[in-house]
Write a structure and sequence with these properties.
The complex is a heterodimer of chains A (502) and B (150). Chain A contains 20 helices and 2 strands. Chain A is mainly α. Chain A starts with a helix and ends with a helix. In chain B, strands 1-2 form a two-stranded antiparallel ribbon. The chains are: A mainly alpha (502), B mainly alpha (150).
């Protein structure tokens, strides 16, 4: 504990430097803006500012980008409550009771409880990150290529089975991501794969272009189909204060949301979105008045909003300690770390303590900044929604173009963004979730490298994958997951056979 | 264009099936080496084949369990204009520089989807492109292509 506090103290020395406070503020502000604006989520927000961090110190860059990530989670609730349009996917559930509260003239308490819950969830999850990450890093230092292969396989399987859509569709998306990840030079022999002589493809398909296309451009294209004028409910500053009964009702929901969000943050996929649905379902299930959910219950705002912010801290653990981005937005953070010459993994904490502890300290500071930004300034953010979409959309697209172009000063990045924007649009229409595809692109490379390295070390002996306690644990978990999923599928299929003829 | 959601889902499944077959076939032309020490073609071959099998399973599911689906709009004119404008900007940005390509990009989209009309769209596009260049290049230090050839 003393060591942790001492390192945290050093982290605060870094985070409290004037320049880092400024970058933290810019990240939180931009995060709130992208969270408020429909069609711009944390992923697009991160990708847009990524090029601007190239000239910064690594710690400053990560502090700013992380601010965007958790700032967007705060901002998303504002539009859900006041306009019934989720600023980003993790705020969909907040629309249900949040907007109903706003219609009854209780937008202020809904916003305050959402902000307080977000602050509690975010802060507790940072404590978890601070305590769990170093211990996990120590454990993972013993992991060799064989165990790493097991871990990657496990991450991809969890990604396939825990998602919002049917498993077969998700598996197809994961496999498509793994296939896309093979484009470029072979990581072991440098043999060109699917490049067809194009130098631009030798380093693979641009990740940033792909991410902005799939999540930013596709969302704008969908919004362009149905341009509607938003009816915004504007709360007065005086009406912000919640009643004592609001606080009493919300406190347990905030506690449960924190635990749910923190646990779900570890799971690869769209855990930040799923955690909000789980939290809402739990609150409704244990409520004495489940029939009132959907009519403006404050627990329906407090639980999910807390849960989505609690995932931000725990989602950082697999990213920083294992190099596994649990959710799409953290994949951009992974890119940022790699661009700055920092390879996330068990050595990160010992090799770059300034980055790790500076980031943790800045997250404490950023969460306080966000409460201050999101409550008194809510009126300013709401005015952003008054800009008609036909003027907003071209602006967002132009900033996206500038963002992807500046990654490598190549027009091919813009083309990749356009192509994946179109693909993302069609995938959304066909109800295929693009998040597993994007995460599989990142994880596929490591899956292949770890497998081939393990085989090279063992001189081609496949049994090496089952040697060592860590490998056995990971592959045992893989086998268990496959059996459970198989059993669930067979039982579901049998049930269908029995029920459908009747 | 109004399309049934099941038709779009089947279309995506067919595209994935074809992509899987193509990747597997192309991988066979890469060095595969041996099962004990796999070469560069093995991983894409395995993933391509698995993708094709999964996509085929999806298609079988659609055929075995036909559901009515719902009518969806696919391919609105604004969507096509936005995608073409982005593609056009990719083509022009290094030939004409940022200012001209961004002005054209914004003009095409504004003239199509806003109610500004041609003249005002042109003026707004030029002003926005100029402000963007000033902000990103001069203030934030992002390297953008200047006038043609520079």
């Amino acid at each position: 504990v003393n060591d942790t506090l001492s390192f945290l103290g050093q982290g605060f020395e870094i985070a409290l430097r004037w320049d880092n406070l400024f970058y933290c503020f810019v990240g939180c502000l931009w995060g709130t803006v992208v969270g408020v604006l429909p069609g711009l989520g944390p992923l697009a927000g991160l990708a847009l500012l990524l090029p601007l961090t190239f000239s910064l110190e690594p710690a400053s860059a990560i502090i700013m980008l992380a601010g965007i990530f958790y700032g967007a989670m705060y901002g998303g609730s504002t539009t859900s409550i006041l306009v019934r349009i989720p600023g980003e996917a993790a705020s969909i559930v907040t629309c249900i009771d949040g907007y109903e509260m706003a219609k009854k003239g209780r937008a202020g308490p809904a916003l305050v409880i959402a902000a307080l819950g977000s602050w509690v969830g975010g802060t507790v999850s940072i404590v978890g990150l601070m305590l769990f990450a170093p211990a996990l890093a120590e454990l993972m230092l013993k992991v060799g290529p064989a165990a790493e292969f097991g871990l990657m396989l496990l991450a991809l399987l969890v990604l396939s089975f825990v998602s919002s859509g049917p498993p077969l569709k998700t598996i197809a998306m994961v496999l498509a991501g793994l296939v896309i990840g093979t484009v470029g030079l072979d990581p072991i022999t440098a043999y060109p794969r699917f490049t067809y002589g194009a130098i631009e493809l030798s380093e693979g398909i641009s990740f940033v272009g792909m991410a902005i296309g799939l999540f930013g451009v596709s969302e704008i294209l969908l919004n362009l189909e149905e341009i509607t004028k938003m009816a915004v409910i504007k709360p007065s500053f005086r009406s912000l204060l919640p009643r004592l009964s609001d606080l009493r009702q919300s406190a347990p929901a905030i506690g449960r949301g924190t635990v749910i969000g923190f646990v779900f943050g570890f799971i690869p996929g769209i855990s930040h979105v799923i955690s909000t649905f789980v939290s809402y379902a739990v609150e409704k299930k244990i409520s004495r008045h489940p029939e009132e959910f959907g009519t403006g219950r404050i627990e329906g705002v407090a639980g999910p909003e807390t849960a989505n912010n609690a995932t931000t801290g725990s989602a950082m653990i697999p990213l920083l300690v294992l190099g596994i981005p649990a959710i799409p937005a953290t994949a951009i953070l992974l890119s940022a770390l790699l661009i700055h010459g920092i390879r996330p993994g068990p050595q990160l904490i010992s090799e770059h303590p300034d980055v790790f502890w500076g980031l943790i300290a800045s997250m404490y500071i950023g969460n306080v900044m966000l409460v201050i930004l999101n409550l008194p300034l809510v009126g300013i953010f709401i005015n952003l929604l008054r800009i008609p979409y036909p003027y907003l959309a071209p602006g967002i697209l132009l900033v996206s173009i500038i963002g992807v172009y500046s990654v490598s000063a190549s027009p091919s990045e813009i083309l990749v963004m356009a192509i994946f924007g179109g693909i993302g649009y069609v995938l959304q229409k066909a109800r295929f979730d693009a998040a597993p595809l994007l995460l599989a692109v990142v994880l596929g490379d490591r899956l292949e490298i770890s497998l081939r390295r393990a085989l090279m070390i063992s001189d081609g002996d496949w049994w090496v994958l089952l040697q060592g306690a860590m490998s056995q644990i990971f592959l045992g978990a893989v086998a268990l997951l496959v059996v459970l999923q198989g059993a669930a599928w067979i039982m579901g299929f049998r049930k269908k056979l029995v029920v459908e003829p009747n | 264009m109004q399309v049934n959601s099941r038709t779009i889902e089947m279309g995506v499944a067919i595209a994935l099936l074809l992509a899987g077959i193509f990747v597997a076939e192309q991988s066979l032309q890469m060095p595969l080496d041996s099962m004990s020490l796999p070469g560069p073609g093995v991983f894409p071959l395995a993933m391509g084949a698995a993708l094709a099998v999964t996509a085929a399973a999806l298609l079988v599911g659609y055929v075995v369990r036909p559901e009515p689906g719902e009518k969806l709009r696919l391919g609105h004119g604004y969507v096509a204009v936005a995608l073409l404008a982005i593609g056009g900007m990719a083509e022009l940005i290094e030939r004409t520089g940022f200012l001209i390509s961004a002005t054209l990009f914004l003009f095409v989209i504004l003239a199509t989807i806003s109610k500004l009309g041609w003249w005002r769209s042109g003026i707004a596009a030029l002003a926005a492109a100029f402000v963007s260049q000033l902000l990103f290049q001069n203030i934030l230090g992002v390297a953008l292509p200047s006038w043609p050839g520079i």
